[in-house]
Specification:
The chain has 167 residues and is mostly helical. It is built from six helices and three strands. The longest helix is centred in the C-terminal third of the chain and has 21 residues.
Length: 167
């Protein structure tokens, strides 16, 4: 990755915990925007978007502006970005936030298909996701010592107190 960041970036997709859905664009237009940004040929954008809409049960919402979507619909539209321009590595932060059980099941199927095609998924979640043959890393063993965290907060408060008295 250090040697060729652009090549790595072209093969990776990151979806954060905030949905990147522009409120004034329709669901179709949002996905078409991302397809274009990721370099999908203009002649293939519509088909790629329609396929992604169908995969996440969004076809009926294709002409609805982003501002009108529920939180779950926004999340599904955001996840559909993964399908408009395929990449080998998906880095996902809380991808199941606001999804109902049926949508989580759809997402599990999308992950399974991606992995079956040779893709890799790295995700953080508080939701139980069923992914066959996956490796789970539970971060609780890496949590900060509560006493240490309290000292850090106290230290930060001392810094602010010093700044206030220096004025």
């Amino acid at each position: 990755m250090e040697d060729d960041y652009e090549a790595f970036a072209a093969q990776a997709r990151y979806l954060g915990h905030h949905d990147a859905i522009k409120p004034v664009l329709t669901v179709f237009e949002n996905l078409a925007f991302w397809a274009g940004l990721y370099g999908v040929a203009e002649s293939k954008v519509a088909a790629a978007v329609e396929k992604a809409l169908a995969a996440f049960a969004l076809s009926a919402l294709r002409d609805i502006p982003g501002i009108m979507l529920s939180a779950g619909q926004k999340r599904r539209a955001n996840l559909a970005r993964l399908l408009v321009a395929p990449a080998g590595v998906w880095l996902l932060d809380e991808p199941t936030t606001a999804l109902d059980k049926a949508s989580v099941a759809v997402f599990e199927g999308v992950i399974a298909a991606h992995r079956a095609a040779g893709g890799m998924v790295v995700l953080s979640t508080h939701t139980d996701i069923v992914v066959a043959d996956s490796t789970e890393l539970f971060m609780t063993q890496f949590a900060a010592d509560p006493a240490h965290a309290a000292r850090q907060v106290h230290f930060a408060a001392d810094l602010f107190d010093d700044q206030d008295t220096a004025r």
